[in-house]
């Protein structure tokens, strides 16, 4: 699928009423890998959901339904966290996660939620800093960690986990609040953007911001970030368009002085003899 068509479908997804994070994740995958087949991958999720349905007892308790999901996805199918190459972009592209059965916390959480929700299990994403998890909405103290093969944690155990992985972060109970489905897709895009920037794949990082601008038009910072990337790539006209739009976007941002300085430098460079 070519990029304009993917963006057209992503815009329709954003404008729709249902923000299935798996659907958003598949569109992200199609944006960065033309080989991604959205309909085929959607069928794989449906097939996995059927595999769970055949094993799910009638009127299963929250813990029983989680146990069935864990046994099927992690024990039978072998999904697991990619600890050996955590920052491989493939860990964030859902079609490759489904193919390799490797991912990072948020991509594995999207698979887990997609399969569970297809079986009526009420699951929500939990955006704890540094380690995305899943929450069973009918059981307030039941948090599932798909990166670690579905281990079930209490709120206190989540706090201990954060202390190990990010000791500099002060714990807030709000870290365990449910994240909206749209917020999950946004976090996937931000993660992928950071990876592409780190690898100096700036055109692909711009691609993630194109999607973030569509998804969260109210977040002016996406325009600033995209403008800065265009500036690094030598695309001055696009950089100025984004930076100027950022500065016009309502209340004066705290970094307005810095952004104006960058915009001025670009304009001076573009002047004859500059």
Fold topology:
Layout: H1 3-15, H2 21-32, H3 38-53, H4 62-76, E1 80-81, H5 94-100, E2 102-103, H6 105-117, E3 123-126, E4 133-136, E5 143-145, E6 151-153, H7 155-165, E7 178-179, H8 181-198, H9 202-215, H10 221-232, H11 236-247, H12 256-270
Parallel strand pairs: 1-2
Antiparallel strand pairs: 3-4, 3-7, 4-5, 5-6
Helix pairs in contact: 1-2, 1-9, 2-8, 3-6, 8-9, 9-10, 10-11, 11-12
Give your account of this protein's structure.
A hairpin with a 5-residue loop joins strand 5 and strand 6 (151-153). The protein is 58% helix and 7% strand. The protein is built from twelve helices and seven strands. The protein is globular. The longest helix has 18 residues, at 181-198. It has a five-stranded antiparallel sheet with strand order 6-5-4-3-7. The chain is an alpha+beta fold.
Class computed from helices, strands and strand pairing? alpha+beta
Order of helices and strands: HHHHEHEHEEEEHEHHHHH
Secondary structure tally, helices: 12
**Biggest beta sheet summary:** 5 strands, antiparallel
Global shape? globular
Query: Got a strand count?
Result: 7
**Order of strands across the widest beta sheet?**
6-5-4-3-7
pLDDT < 50 stretches: none
Share of helix, binned: 55-70%
Distance between the termini: 42 Å
Q: Whole-number average pLDDT?
A: 94
């Amino acid at each position: 699928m070519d990029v304009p068509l993917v963006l057209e479908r992503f815009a329709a997804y954003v404008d729709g009423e249902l923000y299935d994070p798996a659907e958003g994740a598949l569109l992200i995958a199609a944006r960065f890998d033309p080989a991604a087949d959205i309909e085929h991958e959607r069928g794989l999720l449906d097939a996995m959901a059927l595999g769970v349905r055949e094993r799910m007892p009638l009127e299963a308790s929250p813990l029983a339904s989680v146990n069935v999901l864990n046994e099927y996805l992690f024990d039978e199918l072998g999904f697991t966290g990619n600890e050996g190459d955590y920052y491989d972009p493939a860990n964030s592209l859902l079609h490759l996660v489904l193919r390799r059965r490797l991912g990072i916390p948020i991509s594995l959480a999207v698979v887990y939620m997609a399969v569970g929700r297809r079986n009526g299990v009420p699951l929500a994403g939990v955006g704890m800093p540094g380690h995305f998890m899943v929450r069973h909405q009918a059981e307030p103290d039941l948090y599932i960690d798909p990166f670690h093969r579905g281990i079930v944690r209490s709120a206190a155990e989540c706090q201990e986990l954060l202390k190990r992985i990010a000791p500099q972060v002060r714990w807030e109970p709000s870290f365990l609040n449910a994240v909206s489905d749209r917020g999950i897709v946004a976090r996937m895009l931000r993660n992928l953007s950071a990876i592409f920037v780190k690898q100096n794949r700036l055109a692909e990082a711009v691609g993630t911001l194109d999607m973030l601008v569509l998804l969260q038009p109210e977040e002016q910072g996406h325009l600033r970030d995209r403008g800065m990337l265009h500036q690094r790539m030598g695309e001055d006209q696009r950089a100025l368009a984004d930076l100027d739009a950022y500065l016009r976007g309502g209340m004066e941002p705290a970094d307005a002085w810095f952004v104006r300085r960058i915009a001025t430098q670009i304009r001076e460079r573009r002047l004859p003899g500059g």
